[in-house]
Amino acid sequence: MTARRVLIWRHGRTEWNAAGRIQGQTDVPLDEIGVQQAIQAAPLLAAEGPDAIVSSDLQRAKRTADALAAVTGLPVSVDARLRETGFGPWQGLSHTELAERWPDEYAVWKRGETPELPGIERPADVIARMREALTDALGAVEGTLVVVCHGGAARRAVQALTGWSDEVAAQLAALGNCRWSELRHSTTRGWRLHAHNVGPLSGAAANDEPSTAADAEPAAEEELTSSPRS
Q: Would you call 95 a catalytic residue per the annotation?
């Protein structure tokens, strides 16, 4: 068996998302808006006809996956390899705090590169574990697989399937909370991106504020200057 279609779904909003804090692998729960985002988005994903759901073990992803499971009746498989990029000493800090405490390293990160700091996971390592997790999940189902994970991990999942370079992947906009990417497999061209940042157009799940548009990714200038709204 092998799935021919993958929907990579980012979890709903958390308080740290709203505050612009780096989550990484800290196990932060969904906030009230995040729960509503998952509940609202779940029927739309259910309409895509998923055959299996696999989720990161972090509770913000698992709670999002559970919303889809409640609609579809499908079980949720949990895989720690789908966790967000580890950000070590940066986890829990805002972008302003990072710029103040690690100005040189933060400047490196803003350029889209990985700073040399203990505890910060390198992209190649994230891609490797995402590839392993996806290979196992894809081999266990036919049809459509839903992968529930995180903002930075979702980008690496797309890379793992398509083989894109870091330079190409950097051009892919970060997923908003509770939005997803769709990839389909071609026997001649392999995995191809068919849709990106898909989600409801109204209600809680349509709340795609700049502050919630990235997880463990460099913030764009407008993300640093805008105030979170809810």
A: no
